[in-house]
Amino acid sequence: MSAFNRRNFLSKAGNFSLAAVAASIAQPVWSRNLHSAIEKAQTLPPAALAGDEAFWYYVQQAYTTSSGIINLNNGGVAPSPKSVQEAMKRYHDISNEAPSYYMWRIVDQGREPLRNSLAKLAGADAEEIAIHRNASEALETVIFGLDLKAGDEVVLTKQDYPNMINAWKQREERDKIKLVWINLDLPSEDTDYITRQYTNAFTAKTKVVHVTHIINWNGQILPVRKIADAAHARGIEVLVDGAHSFAHFSFTIPQLGADYFGTSLHKWLSACIGSGLLYVKKDKIKNLYPLFGAPDTQRDNIRKFENTGTRPFFIEQAIHKAIEFHEMIGAERKEARLHYLKNYWMQKVQTLPGVKLGTSLNKEFGCAIGLVAVDGRKPAELDNFLMTNYKIHTVGIEWENIKGVRITPNVYTTTKNLDVLVEGITAFVKKGAF
Ligand SMILES: Cc1ncc(COP(=O)(O)O)c(C=O)c1O
Hints:
14% strand, Aspartate Aminotransferase, domain 1, 4-stranded antiparallel β-sheet, 7-stranded mixed β-sheet
């Protein structure tokens, strides 16, 4: 190497290493730590990593969650990691520089790439994915958009989500369709029993079955594919409420056999609050009316479901970062950890006197969400006791035949947090008559 070339090379190498050092300093400590923890975890199977507190501590550092209260109601809505919050704020700030220019012409340029990323995550075609603001918007688009006439029957359960129940009731009142109700006895590990409840309700007039993938009240996972196959064999369309399942455990939407699927992205994907997704099977798009009118040219186009007017594109675009974070942790690792956390606390309280678990410990029938009840005590009593004495935030459930306190950890929850929960439930039981 000539002296000139050597000097040139050394100065380039110097620039390179300086740039690398500068980049690593610019990256916050939590992010560097998490990155190296993930690198080290590459060779470990998800189940082995599920109980590795050191690893999950680094994940926790990616969040800004309160250390003043222990939030065990991630089933309601989940917090976003820092990277998602920061992206949302950046997009919001830039939008306000000149909204009609930056928001519509710049920020919204990310919509098609986002559709592609969401489609990959869902295992679906991008032309089947619409971006919505929550699961209610997605599911009500289908409920109000299906071409149903008086006398057509829809099968649903008393354990479905109230917004969806109310939407169907509104259609019943306005269009005189008939709602056929199932009352599920949960928790259940009997796939045949659950499937039979649906198939027994099918008649020649059934046009749609509404299936909730995870029952929000107790975290029960339903055998959607079996129900969908039985429905399709009779020419019945399948609407799946996946508000709680998407990015919670691994599946693809086509695997479920759903014709329509709606989900929140602010639950298990940890996207910003106010984000959701609608999936419509390609051949079903044409005959489904959009909730907000669309031009004729969009009849066959999934984008016809996105004419919702001016909306917070800064929230929508931050979904990109939530997908990145989800993929960085890894869907399988996340699922294994969530299941581990649920079983961790449930196994510790299940033998306490009077305690009844309202959720299966089996992976096929439950994941992160767990319900616990104490004989002779109201769910609200335990819920209040945990907040008053331990600053644990949960939710008391009394809905139809389901009663208990719902506990929902997330990837940032530590087993230390759950030890406090176990202590709280134990103290509550001791305080009672048992
Ligand atoms: C089963 C189920 N469906 C639908 C919804 C509605 O979700 P969103 O608040 O995103 O509209 C929820 C919310 O908790 C739910 O649990």
